[in-house]
Structures are given as structure tokens and as C-alpha cells.
Design goal:
about 20% strand
Length: about 475
């Protein structure tokens, strides 16, 4: 009995001694190594990123679906403090990581550095290769990072997370940038100024309906391809609220791999590019004249096919003379000289005032970064008459796509101009009244007639109001 007891005691003593030696080795002999790695793991853990708020689509039933999530990805990183031979280490892994040896040597040579990211979202096979090497100071971990499940869908609107000037990462472009503070959250700080716990960032629920957005992307991609266009944009807006239901542009990029795309593709053409609107602008001219009481839909004039203004000639797009036509015919047949006639009835100064009411030449103040405004500088006081005549049918002036659809939405909304927005928490906000409800109704009927006679669109049970537009 005494022998057995002695054996048991001996086993416990040996085990306990081994445990003490292991703790001594960790805490004393290899203290600096493990402390450095522990600190680097904290920095690599993605703790702050994991708290970043998500971005969600909202359908008409109020159901949410993720547009942006946080997801764990493998990363490969180094702890220069514990790398014994920076040159040899760089040489061993350079070809594996496909990083220049000199670049790695510079990273590993920072002897006081606790963390150097080598590869983000690393391929599992690459991670396996690094693990097999068992190089002191080069490790793999799981890190939270942004994941965009729809890839390029609405990429210019959403943006991405990328390096910032402070040496960290933050929202770049789009909503990720505009709502950086809300999405990233705030860090808890104690009395000594040390971070004690990161606070969860706010989720961002969009007015965008994923069903509409996905369909818009399909249609736009197909049209750009079939017409061999350089690019295109589509916006779908709720005219009563100003909420954006879809916003898409191509070419686009994949925010999951943004470094593989050109910088120019990061910009959002719907808010950061201008173009001559062309004949769609005839609707704005016509409704302004209707609201001013200068014409009615039945007002007539004789189109000879050419109009001489300021020593220049204005001709119709089809080079035809349409004879005696009504203002409704002008919209139906898209007659340039007819739009110039309507603008002349308004008067240049009042015409410019109406354009300002519709918001042309100013930012819409949508919740997106880097918005620009249209260019109407040509319509300054004392400008030649030809400037106003060509502006009546959308030439010589420029708009952003969002500026244009917001103006048209005010017509659909009975003359109420609403601020466009993407964050559903903002809610509707009226900017001003542009025209009377009666003028809005009259021009809408003219647009319905144009679509019906052109036979370019039909949906059973609905009346479609529209206008073609081609700029030179």
C-alpha cells in the first residue's frame, strides 16, 4: 500500500514539476517572444473590425438582407520583434508569398515592431505552406474583414474598406466612407486614455431594395454589352420620399478584391460625373412654361425644321419640318425647335429661375461622398440667346444623373422636390415646391402620350410616362 502511494505521489510531483518548468519557460525564458506574439495577435485579431456595423438592403415588406458583412478570413503576419534573422526569413518566404525579398527585409528589420501584415484573406493552401515552415516570427491567424456577398453589385455606392493615412483601415468611397464614424463605432476609454473595449458600430439599413437592384444590374449589363457602350448608369427612386430603390453603374469593381480594379471605377458616375442630358430636358422646359402660364398642351406653332438664333441654325434631330404642331406633339416627336419656342415664351431669366427650383446646378445633398453639381454657367446674365435655346433641349448644359432623376421625381410627386437618400433612418425631406400640381399632371399626360405613340414600353394596368434623350 505504501509503495503504491509513493508511486502516485511521485507521478503528481513529476507532473507538477513539469508544469512549473513549462510555466517558467513561458513566463521567464521565452517571455519576450510570447508577449510580442500575444500583443501582435491582439492587433491582428480584427477585434475593432469585427465590431463594424453591417449594411443591409430593405425590401418593400421591410425585410432586411445583407449587402455588407463581417467575416473571418485567414491572414499571414509577422512579429519583427521575435524574428531572429530578417534576411534569411525574407529569403525563405519571398517566393511563397510572392512578395519581393527587399520589401520583406524592410518589414522584418523593424526590431521594435509587434505586427506586420503580410497577406490578407490568404488562400488556405498558402496558409498551410507557411504553417509547415514553422518560422519563428511568422504566423497565421483568423481576422475579421469586410465581406461583400453580392461582389460588384452597387459597388460604387457601397465602397470598401482600405488603408488610410493613419496607418490603419477605414471606409473608402461610397457609404463605407460617408458613414465611417457610425459604422466603425467608438472605443471605450478609461481615465488614463487606454482602450478598454470597442463599442459596436451601427448597422446601416438602406432604402435600396435588393430585388430591384439585382434586376437593374442584369438589364444594365445586358444593354451596355449589346450596344457596345463604354458604360451606363441606372437610378430607381421613390418620387414621394426621395428614397433610392436602386443605383447601379457599369463598369464596376469587386470590393472584395478592389486592388485588382482601376481607380476610375471606384467613382460613382450617378453623383460624380456630369453629362449633357439631351432631349429629356425638353420635359423640364415644357413643364416650366406650363407652370408659368405661357403655354398649354394645345398651344401650337409652325415648325419649319430650322430656327435661326444668334446667327446660328437650330435643326431637329431628324432634320424634318413637322409643320403645325402642338406642345404635346413637341414631346411626342422630340422637336428641338419646339422646345426652343417654349423657352422663348417663358423668357430667359424666368427659365433659369425654374431650373434653379428643380435643383439644377446645385448638389442634391444625397448621403454619398464626393457629390458634384451640374454645370449651368453658360446660362449667365447677358449670355447669347443661342445658349438658352440649346439648353431648352439639353445641350450646352450638364447634369449628374441623380440631379436629373430628382428633378423628374418632383414632377411625378406633383411638384414637390424631395431630397434623395440611401440611409432609411434619414426619412423623407421636402426641399421645395418646383411647379404646381396641375402643371405636373399636364406634362405627365404629355409624356404618357409620347410613350404610347412610340410603342416602346407597355405594362398591363399601368400608364408609363417617359422621354427619350440623346445628347450630341
Amino acid at each position: 500500500m505504501g509503495f503504491r502511494f509513493a508511486v502516485v505521489i511521485s507521478v503528481f510531483v513529476i507532473a507538477y514539476s513539469f508544469l512549473l518548468f513549462h510555466l517558467y519557460r513561458l513566463q521567464v525564458l521565452h517571455n519576450e517572444n510570447y508577449l510580442a506574439r500575444a500583443e501582435s495577435q491582439y492587433e491582428a485579431s480584427g477585434l475593432l473590425k469585427a465590431t463594424r456595423g453591417g449594411i443591409f438592403f430593405t425590401d418593400k415588406e421591410g425585410r432586411l438582407s445583407p449587402a455588407v458583412l463581417n467575416k473571418e478570413f485567414p491572414v499571414i503576419y509577422a512579429v519583427p520583434q521575435v524574428i531572429e534573422d530578417p534576411i534569411e526569413t525574407a529569403s525563405r518566404i519571398s517566393s511563397i508569398l510572392k512578395i519581393q525579398t527587399e520589401e520583406l527585409e524592410n518589414k522584418f528589420g523593424k526590431t521594435n515592431d509587434r505586427y506586420e501584415l503580410l497577406v490578407k484573406k490568404a488562400d488556405p493552401e498558402l496558409v498551410s505552406q507557411i504553417k509547415e515552415l514553422k518560422i519563428k516570427g511568422v504566423y497565421t491567424e483568423q481576422e475579421y474583414d469586410r465581406f461583400y456577398p453580392f461582389n460588384s453589385l452597387m459597388a460604387q455606392v457601397i465602397g470598401f474598406i482600405g488603408p488610410d493615412n493613419a496607418g490603419g483601415e477605414s471606409g473608402r468611397y461610397g457609404l463605407e466612407s460617408y458613414y465611417e464614424k457610425e459604422l466603425s463605432g467608438e472605443n471605450g476609454v478609461d481615465k488614463d486614455g487606454k482602450i478598454i473595449s470597442p463599442q459596436k458600430g451601427e448597422d446601416l439599413n438602406l432604402t435600396v431594395d435588393s430585388n430591384i437592384q439585382i434586376e437593374v444590374e442584369k438589364i444594365l449589363t445586358r444593354l451596355v454589352s449589346s450596344f457596345e457602350a463604354e458604360g451606363g448608369s441606372v437610378i430607381v427612386q421613390d418620387p414621394k420620399t426621395g428614397g433610392i430603390l436602386a443605383m447601379e453603374s457599369v463598369p464596376s469593381f469587386d470590393p472584395n478584391n478592389y486592388n485588382q480594379s482601376s481607380l476610375e471605377n471606384f467613382l460613382n458616375p450617378t453623383t460624380q460625373a456630369i453629362y449633357e442630358p439631351g432631349s429629356v430636358f425638353k420635359v423640364i422646359t415644357m413643364v416650366s412654361a406650363l407652370d408659368a402660364g405661357k403655354i398649354t398642351p394645345e398651344t401650337t406653332y409652325v415648325d419649319t425644321g430650322v430656327l435661326k438664333v444668334s446667327g446660328r441654325e437650330i435643326r431637329n434631330w431628324d432634320l424634318k419640318a413637322h409643320g403645325k404642331v402642338t406642345m404635346t406633339n413637341v414631346i411626342e416627336k422630340s422637336i428641338n425647335t419646339g422646345a426652343a419656342f417654349a423657352e422663348k415664351q417663358i423668357g430667359h431669366s424666368l427659365f433659369k429661375t425654374y431650373l434653379e427650383k428643380f435643383g439644377f446646378g446645385e448638389k442634391t445633398n444625397v448621403d454619398l461622398p464626393g457629390e458634384i453639381s451640374g454645370d449651368f454657367k453658360r446660362l449667365k446674365p447677358g449670355a447669347p440667346e443661342i445658349a438658352f435655346s440649346t439648353a431648352s433641349f439639353g445641350q450646352g448644359v450638364a447634369v449628374t444623373p441623380l440631379e436629373l432623376i430628382t428633378a423628374f421625381s418632383s414632377i411625378a410627386n406633383g411638384g414637390h422636390l424631395m431630397r434623395p437618400y440611401l440611409n432609411s433612418a434619414l426619412g423623407p425631406k421636402e426641399i421645395r415646391r418646383t411647379i404646381s400640381a396641375s402643371a405636373a399632371r399636364e406634362v405627365a399626360e404629355m409624356m404618357v402620350s409620347a410613350v404610347d405613340k412610340a410603342e416602346v414600353g407597355h405594362i398591363r394596368g399601368y400608364s408609363l410616362a417617359g422621354k427619350t434623350g440623346t445628347a450630341q
